[in-house]
Amino acid sequence: MIHYKTKAEIELMRESALLVSEALAVVAATIKPGITTMQLDKIAEEFIRDNKATASFKGYHGFPFACCISVNDAVVHGFPTNDELVNGDIVSVDVGVFKNGFHGDSAYTFGVGELSEEVKKLMRVTKESLYKGIEKAIIGNRVGDIAFAIQDYTEKQHGYGVVRDLVGHGLGRHLHEEPQVPNFGKRGTGAKLREGLVIAIEPMINLGTKDVFHDKDGWTIRTADGKPAAHYEHDICIQKGKADILSSFTPIEAAEKANTELCSDY
Ligand code: MG
Ligand code: MG
């Protein structure tokens, strides 16, 4: 069953989504070679708690941390670790918060230090594909229109692998609601997009093969060929003509830019 949100509920959801964006901006300001992903997890969790919210992922089906932090060949659901990040790593940080009865859920992929051109392009195309999907997330379209737009751009136009095993989702009082929002599919198929539907769109795009496997920790999803993956996620509300993006990359991108300039001053 799909839960459509009222205007008042959407405003509460915007608050949750923007809090996730702010938490990711704190990560953006902090990430650098030498820091551990465990430190990043602690910083994000503290920020969420300071803002009178709880981390949605902690305890979700037993997930032990506030953030999913997935480095290089880890696609999603990575555990924070005590390993130090090194120059050239790419790090997907996925965060959820629960506030005022609603979840926010957003992800961003960060580069650490100097990245290869190949990895930079993967990140850029994956982020662009998210907005290609959002363009199709309007009243009158179907979930398959979003899915097709993402797959066409990343797989057909750029030759990347679109992960099939994991998908975006409805969002609200529960972290994962109906409908599922895949990053692959056919135009004109799937659930109809109606006013008040809030979904998390989250392309998970691999540089190489689309195939993935479950790490022995039971959570981390890794690419089968060991090549890197990127992941970006926005929460959006369906409306007429143009989706309302509830989360925001603006604070994250600003912090990322300031951090890069700071690092290049050394
Ligand atoms: Mg997420
Ligand atoms: Mg999600």
Can you characterise this structure?
The protein is an alpha+beta fold. The protein has one domain: Creatinase/methionine aminopeptidase superfamily (Creatine Amidinohydrolase, Alpha-Beta Complex), CATH 3.90.230. The protein is built from 5 helices and 15 strands. A 5-stranded antiparallel beta sheet has the order 8-7-9-14-15. Strands 1, 2, 4 and 5 form a 4-stranded antiparallel beta sheet that branches. Helix 1 (7-30) packs parallel to helix 5 (250-264) and helix 3 (117-135) packs antiparallel against helix 4. The protein is globular, with a radius of gyration of 17 Å. The termini are far apart. The model has no long low-confidence stretch (mean pLDDT 97). The structure holds magnesium ion (2 copies). The site of one magnesium ion (MG) has 6 residues, from strand 4 and strand 5. Residues 94, 96, 105, 107, 202, 233 line the site of one magnesium ion.
